[in-house]
User: Fold these one by one.
Assistant:
Number 1:
Amino acid sequence: MRRYLNRWGFQYTRTRKKTRSLREKPYVRQQRHSYLHAVRDYRIRGYTIAYLDESFLHHYHGKQFSWFDDSDFIERPSGKGRRWCFIDAVSNDGLIPNCFLIFEGRKSTGDYHGSFNFDVFYKWFTESLLPNLSAKTCIVLDRATYHMVPEERIIPGQMRKGDIQEWLSVHNILWEEHWLKPKLVQLMEANIDRTPLVSKEAQKHGHKVLFLPVHHPELNPVELVWAIIKNDCAKKLRTGVSFSDVRKHLEYALAEFSEKTCRKLNEHVKKKEHEYWDMDVELENFDDDEVIEFTEFEKDDYFFEKQAMCYADRNY
């Protein structure tokens, strides 16, 4: 449980005046606040906000509950079957035209992200998304690994010393002959351009790319779009439905998705953004006003408590 809570951005720390046993890690809060500030700024500057996301739909995706009486016998197919993987983008006016990509997920293990990779995503991003965006668009996406691939896909620690020296020389970065590999690696790491390739490509077309903070899918309206569409498809699960029929149901649900619903979802996300903004400001003010003054005994207690927590983490 400790591992999961840490992964979600919470930290276990000493309780203060108000009970806050579960607290977000500072970097998560700062990352969210920076995102909220940026997306507000882009809206003020007249950018259209477009959100994108990937998802999947299993062959036997159906409703989990149904109304029936004691004489009914309802049986869903065993297993999930094959799955369709798809990606699309949405703005305040609805799904962006000519952007929908769908294919069968061939990988039988892992989640649907295993069926996507950088090549698939980058091809869709450059050939389907960018040509169909309106002028001055801010593209919002999550921090999946294949979304954030930089132009230089190199790992200094896995390179030979001579190759690192050559790379530094080509980029006009000064180094000294007596330096060992660890220092050369550190220098190279500090000078590698980690800007995602999709950000550079969007910039060429006059657009911006903005990455969502970690652990915040609720700030992406596409997540709600997929939930509505997949629920529509679930209602159509019947005995004998073919895998190709599932795709038709999905495409039909997308075609029928209304602009009105899309605007409501965007407004819902904006409301959530305001809530987070107010909460961050409130917590910041509270932390500023909160001064901890320990006695010598309390300092010792706090120190030993931290030591015990670290020891427990190592032996969990």
Note: The beta strands are 10-12, 22-24, 48-58, 83-91, 94-95, 101-104, 137-141, 208-211.
Number 2:
Amino acid sequence: MAVPMVPLLVCIPGDIKPIKRGKRFEAPINRELRRGGRLGCVVGGGTKMCLGGPRFVTGCYLDVDVKDVNRALPALRQALLGAGSPRGTRVLNADTQEVLLIAPAAGTLRPPRRRVLPPHYPWSEGEILGYRLSPEVLALLFVVQSGTYPVFRVLDWSGPAVPPAEVVRQLLRRRERRYALGRRTYGIGWMPTSLQSAVLIPGRLDEGRIERTGLTVPVLWRHRRRRYCAFDSWPNFDQFLRKLFGLEPTTGTERLMNEVGVGSLAHHLAVWSAPESVTAEQAFALFTAYVRKDRDKPFVPATAPLRQFVRELRSYYNRRCAAAEDQPWAGKFRAAEAFMIVPIKKFRADEVRELVRGLAHRHGLTAYDPHREEVFVGTPRGERPNGKLLTMR
């Protein structure tokens, strides 16, 4: 009869790429486990990267299946120490999320001195919870996944008290205006196992914030197949909700991500021919309507100045960039969009913003930077340049 295998996860921080991971860690681990009596083997692994700004490797992980944890740990420890595992290395039981070995310093690997089990929250799947942000603001959380690492859908509603059950059901059925709320589910202390680097989540829930409504709605497949947004602690989730519902100031980039669902991997500028002056708040409403492709979005015509703007913008970088990958664009754009959204690589944003600002003034166009919440108003040709900058309060 086959012996059941126990899955372990070895998390190693540092700039460790796949080939180096295999030679430095995977081969020694397999060798030590084999010497110990065929205790198991490495069955997979991967690389962890930082995705904000320039991408770089932050660490790696190995999936190891073993027959006996107690016999396998000394072999794992020997292999990792021999490979020079860096500070922060961890060995975890992937089933129980228990930390088995830690490296508080380079050249050491030992069991943790204090065993801290992850919390288990008592809510049931499908339960509607009220989360008190202030005396007058209550947010609604729909429990998509219960247990140690809960996953919620945040409903597009806030008020002083829990609304009637029929209102809650309507909120679950309708498509929310806030893009991020409608297309994401939010997990606390949750990450895919393959990306997990720690299980001791800092910060605990203030249970006085939770109001159990007694309402449970069955979780459907459409509630589960949305994109996830993970937080490493309750305080970070609480801060996110406070910004989302206007209780704390938020940056333009955070607002884009929370309400529109863009802005994390690229910088965006919008350019169009506006018949009259536009405030930053009006520009943001127009930007979100076009990103969401709302059916009732205002009509914006494609104009000759906008086409000339695109020709000059592209020719400027075509002359200076020999290869396509050297250009600052993070996606496609064209004048036929009328309300044209230009995606830019984040580290080239300042450079492109100044060029766009100058070209918009020259051709009498309006440009909007939602990350800085600024509107650049141009002056048509033949008139005295008198561009002005409007900043949202």
Note: The first helix runs from residue 18 to 35.
Number 3:
Amino acid sequence: MKTSWNGKFIITVKNKDETETITVNNVITNSGLNLLRDFLSGNATDGQLKYLAVGTSSASVSLTDTQLGGEFFRTEFISQNITSTGVLNSNTILFETEGVGQIEEIGIFAGSTASSATNSGIMISRILFSRNKTNLESIQFQRVDTIGRG
């Protein structure tokens, strides 16, 4: 039986005039798969998704990516909920004054080395998302990770 791990972002941009929701599917990086493997084998004790980071690089996404190309802001997940068998929802928000500037990429970071420091932790996934974020809008991120039977 084959097993799979899929990640999806539901991104909601809100300003005083409108709300826009975008869904972006992605693949899990090699380092993300290795973290799960190491966690299952006992070689890692912390596999928790901890931070969402935004950056300025529009370079193509690669399975071998281990950090963002130009990280300039990161925020902790504010909630995580198990919604069904094999499904975890992780949520955070970039408030009006956070992450202001040209966003081109988003990464998710996990593990015992993940902290508020730039480029820390194990990158689970990276997507391209182009937005000139202003201080008049917030962006809500819902990360949906599904581990399933193939």
Note: The longest strand covers residues 3-15.
